[in-house]
Each structure stands twice: as C-alpha cells, then as structure tokens.
Design brief:
alpha+beta, Nuclear Transport Factor 2, Chain: A, 6-stranded mixed β-sheet, 39% strand, globular, disordered N terminus, Ketosteroid isomerase-like protein, isomerase activity, SnoaL-like, isomerase, NTF2-like_dom_sf
C-alpha cells in the first residue's frame, strides 16, 4: 500500500462522524455527503418510508435544511460494531422554512425542534452502503404544531 492510499483510510466511525459534520446547517455539503456513499448506496427515512439514491441523497439534506436551516445533530452515543455504526442522537433546529406535507405546506412557525433519533449506518470498504434514519417524526410534527387529526381518522374508519 502506497502512502497516498493509507492517508485517506478512515474508520467506519470517522466516516459516519464526517457525514454528520457535512449535514450540519452551518456546513451543509450535500455533494460531500453523497461522496461518502457507495455508488448504489441508499439513505432511508424510515418513519416516512422514503428511500433516496444517487443525486436524491444531497437533495434530501438540502430539503430538510430548507425547513430547518440551523439543523444540528447532537450525537449522544456512537457505537461502531464492525461494518455497522449505531448512533443515538437528537435532531435540533428552528422551523424557518415551509414544511411540505401531502395536504400542503406548513408555514414557518419559528418553533424549535429537538427530535429523538436512532441512526444505523451500514458500511462496505469505508463507504456508506445504507443509512437508516429512525427519527421520531410524530415528535417533530408536534413540535411544529402539526398534531394528528384523530377526529377525521375515527370518522373515516367508522364510515368504512
């Protein structure tokens, strides 16, 4: 192995920590974030059943930062277990952009979010093959004032 080859060898934990750094609102480097993934790597937003691939990966970051431009991820626990890195964190930020929903956009509220999250990162040869983000979407929605419409759900179920 030549000197240049070994100089960029990062541990899996270092790769994941770099991904978080690049996703910070103050840094926001979507292309740099994408470059940490394998060619066929995926970013899976588990609570919303969304999968991002290729050029969609940086778009997912910039879309979220458009709603929460000061987004910060407070890493609470980081555990590297071979090719898997498990992270407990809190996603924090201020709701300053329109939040898209199937029913339309929720205008900015200025509310702070502090969302409990667990991320699982699967790496292959120093690159991210799969990133599964399990964020408490219900907590995020409640924090920006979007509580569930239980009445409509009950009425729809009763009518069925």
């Amino acid at each position: 192995m030549g000197i240049d080859e070994g100089a960029d060898m990062r541990t899996n934990e270092e790769v994941v920590r770099e991904a978080y750094r690049l996703a910070e609102g103050a840094v926001l480097d979507g292309n740099g974030f994408r470059d940490l993934f394998t060619e066929d790597g995926t970013f899976n937003d588990m609570p919303n059943a969304l999968t991002f691939r290729g050029d969609q990966i940086p778009q997912a970051l910039t879309g979220f930062a458009g709603v929460f431009p000061d987004v910060h991820r407070e890493l609470l626990e980081v555990h590297a277990l071979g090719d898997v890195v498990a992270v407990e964190l809190r996603i924090q930020g201020t709701h300053l952009g329109a939040f898209p929903t199937p029913a339309g956009e929720i205008p900015p509220t200025g509310n702070r979010i502090d969302v409990p999250t667990a991320d699982l990162w699967y790496l292959r040869d120093g690159k991210i093959e799969r990133f599964d983000c399990y964020n408490a979407a219900n907590v995020l929605l409640a924090q920006i004032g979007a509580t569930p419409d239980f009445r409509s759900a009950i009425a729809a179920a009763t009518a069925a």
